């Protein structure tokens, strides 16, 4: 079945500050957990035994240039990009009834083209375990397609909007066809952006996408999912209203559980932990005897999945099911990429990330023991030969320490820190003949930091005068100083919690 959809509402294309896509992300905190990892597994592992070929009736999308090349990955492992959207239609493009949207607290229809849940699932050739890596939606990254730096969840919407408007200018009047082609362009750009971000072009073999449609039916069809909350949760935007402790949730409250962003201590990172905890419970329930021995539950689940899931062409789900036979709940492990804290860039609230650190962690998690684990060091080549003199004039007591630690981690030699009177602008001072040292420090801090040549600075030294404008970027690699004040980062540099597995019921915020 090829994909069709209702006429879209094109998103506004943002500028190089990231405001355009960020506008959508700030409204309502709307996101849906990617049910795909278990929804597809439910459809493939056992469903075909009761209802026939799972490849029949699925909505597919042609996101890979060479479908045959992606049919069987050359390395035998399968790498799936799972995406969750807030679309107000089902997989076939049929609008959801207003009463259904109201019941699910879906809110107004803006921002539904943002891919607010992105998860890379790596399954080695033996199919005995799976590693799922979550990518926060607000990660500040370089988008492919020439769109510049923006939030990761805007990679889809920028390419979608660009293609949709181009097709209209070219005279295409079939809005459904324009929407279908624009969605393919959006998906391709998201895949390319993630592959560039993790430093592994061509890694992703499969693509699967889910939206709000049928979430209610999916969770109810299996009798709910067991989760655990550290404390009671009640928040108006998502509609969540749950007590603390272990409990079974389904339908409206299941969707609210995974969609809540506001009121959580760590905001989107806590929501990701909830999504992972819910997925682990869903996986555990799907492969339980309660579901597997019930043809009625499996049939209901598969019917709901087919209404809401879009998968890449060339994906033989029956073959995939056979490969996954040895997988058990305890062998599904969930991780989140390392992050560096919050920032405000161009008016957008974003999450700072170091692409080198992220690439190293993804390589480590997906190595399968066949190659040495990638080092977690983020040292810059040549940094050891550069001495950084840090002068703190930012007015933020913790910023100098954060910057010192970050630069040390990059391999620089640090002189003793010194204090300055509070200043507005961050400036790098360097010897006029030492452009190489300057370039390394700018790479570690930000390409936008001002630099001034100074013959009094010894060769091989760079003096960093921290100002107020670096408060928001907190010396993040690839960040950008802004003049907008914001609270200091509260997110740890690396995930503090152990990975969530589908073998237990983890308690989350």
- Biggest sheet descriptor: 8 strands, mixed
Structural class: alpha/beta
Helix content: 25-40%
DSSP strand tally: 23
Number of helices: 16
Oligomer state of the chains in this structure: single chain
Which consecutive residue ranges, at least 5 long each, have pLDDT under 50? 4-38, 43-47, 371-376, 472-497
The average pLDDT score comes to: 74
Shape summary: globular
- Give the spatial strand order of the biggest sheet: 1-12-7-2-3-4-13-22
Distance between the termini: 40 Å
Strand content: 15-25%
- Backbone CA Rg: 24 Å
Summarize this entry quickly.
This protein has helices spanning 19-26, 36-45, 47-51, 67-71, 98-103, 155-169, 175-197, 215-221, 251-259, 268-286, 289-292, 295-308, 317-323, 355-365, 399-409, 435-445; strands at residues 59-61, 78-85, 115-123, 130-135, 140-143, 148-151, 206-210, 225-229, 233-235, 240-242, 245-249, 309-312, 332-336, 342-345, 348-351, 387-392, 413-414, 418-419, 427-430, 450-453, 461-466, 500-501, 507-508. The protein is of the alpha/beta class.
Describe the structure.
The protein is an alpha/beta fold. Helix content is 32%, strand content 20%. It has 16 helices and 23 strands. Strand 3 and strand 4 (130-135) form a beta hairpin. The two termini are 40 Å apart.
């Amino acid at each position: 079945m090829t994909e069709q959809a209702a006429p879209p509402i094109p998103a506004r294309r943002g500028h190089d500050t990231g405001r355009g896509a960020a506008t959508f992300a700030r409204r309502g905190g709307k996101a849906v957990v990617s049910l795909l990892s278990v929804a597809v597994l439910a459809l493939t592992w056992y469903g075909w035994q009761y209802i026939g070929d799972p490849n029949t009736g699925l909505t597919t999308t042609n996101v890979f240039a060479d479908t045959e090349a992606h049919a069987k990955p050359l390395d035998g492992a399968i790498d799936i990009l799972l995406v969750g959207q807030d679309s107000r239609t089902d997989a076939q493009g049929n609008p959801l009834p207003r009463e259904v949207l109201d019941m699910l607290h879906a809110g107004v229809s803006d921002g539904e083209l943002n891919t607010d849940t992105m998860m890379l699932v790596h399954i080695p050739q033996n199919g005995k375990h799976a590693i799922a890596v979550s990518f926060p939606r607000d990660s500040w990254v370089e988008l492919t397609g020439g769109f510049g730096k923006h939030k990761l969840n805007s990679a889809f919407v920028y390419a979608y909007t660009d293609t949709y408007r181009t097709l209209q200018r070219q005279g295409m009047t079939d809005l459904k066809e324009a929407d279908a082609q624009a969605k393919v362009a959006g998906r391709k750009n998201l895949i390319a952006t993630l592959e560039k971000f993790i430093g592994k072009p061509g890694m992703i073999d499969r693509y699967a996408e889910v939206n709000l449609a049928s979430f209610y039916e999916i969770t109810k069809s299996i009798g709910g999912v067991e989760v655990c909350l550290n404390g009671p949760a009640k928040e108006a935007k998502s509609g969540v209203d749950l007590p603390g402790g272990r409990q079974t949730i389904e339908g409206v409250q299941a969707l609210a559980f995974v969609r809540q962003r506001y009121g959580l201590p760590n905001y989107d990172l806590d929501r990701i932990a909830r999504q992972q905890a819910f997925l682990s419970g869903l996986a555990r329930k799907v492969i339980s005897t309660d579901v597997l021995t019930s043809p009625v539950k499996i049939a209901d689940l598969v019917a709901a999945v087919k209404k809401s899931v879009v998968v890449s062409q060339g994906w033989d789900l029956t073959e995939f099911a056979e490969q996954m036979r040895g997988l058990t709940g305890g062998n599904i492990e969930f991780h989140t990429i390392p992050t560096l804290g919050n920032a405000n860039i161009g008016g957008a609230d974003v999450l700072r990330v170091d692409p080198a650190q992220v690439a190293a962690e993804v390589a480590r998690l997906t190595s399968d023991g066949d190659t040495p684990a990638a080092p977690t060091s983020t040292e810059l080549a040549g940094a050891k030969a550069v001495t950084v003199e840090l002068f703190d004039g930012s007015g933020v007591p913790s910023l100098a320490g954060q910057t010192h630690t970050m630069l040390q981690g990059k391999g620089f030699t640090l002189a003793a820190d010194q204090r300055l009177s509070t200043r507005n602008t961050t400036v790098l001072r360097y010897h006029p003949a030492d452009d190489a040292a300057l370039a390394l420090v700018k790479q570690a801090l930000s390409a936008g930091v001002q630099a001034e040549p100074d013959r009094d600075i010894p060769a091989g030294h760079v003096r960093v005068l921290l100002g107020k404008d670096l408060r928001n970027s907190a010396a993040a690699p690839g960040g950008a100083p802004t003049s907008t004040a914001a609270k200091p980062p509260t997110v740890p540099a690396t995930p503090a919690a152990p990975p969530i597995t589908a073998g237990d019921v983890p308690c989350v915020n």
